[in-house]
Amino acid sequence: MKLVLASNSKSRKKIFDMLGFNYQIVKSKAEEISNKNDFSEYVMDLSRIKANSVAEQLYPEKCVIVAADSIIYMGDKKFEKPKTLEEAYENIKILSGNVNHAITGVTIKDLYKNQQTSFYDITDVYFNDIDEEDIKWYVNNDKHILERAGYSIADGTAANFVEKVEGNYYNILGMPIAKLCKNLKKLGYKISDFRLN
Asked: I need a surface site. Which of 6, 24, 79, 102 has the fewest CB within 10 A?
């Protein structure tokens, strides 16, 4: 059974490795644009775009494709990867002392059985109040500063900003493991179907 991860994300690769999956990486070549306003629809839409792009690249090969897209949001503001240190600085200032939400949309595209499902998961991330000096140091020193919203709590110094997390921790890293495995089973697969022997 061939499994394809439609992502070059280091954190998603780490998760698939942790699960013991035997998989191949194929990146989407599609332009990732969605006009969906609802955040859950937005990330699922982008995950579908990625999955379809990879399916087109691999045609007529049979496989199960897993594609995901993640953003951070707070209220009606969407935070994606900051393009500059200045943007990352503004993001952290806004997030300081507030609760932000990590949302990941996932599409599983099964080319063996011609079936597809999309789902999402949300995790609440509670940030402490961060003083100006700490924000400046962080922005200028953290190697993950231009990642999702400007922070990574898995292997970045932003972990010290986080008071608590409510929800699936791995969702913050870009792949809600529990829902992924649950949906693979719904499609008729055992998790062992994708694991290394």
From this structure: 24
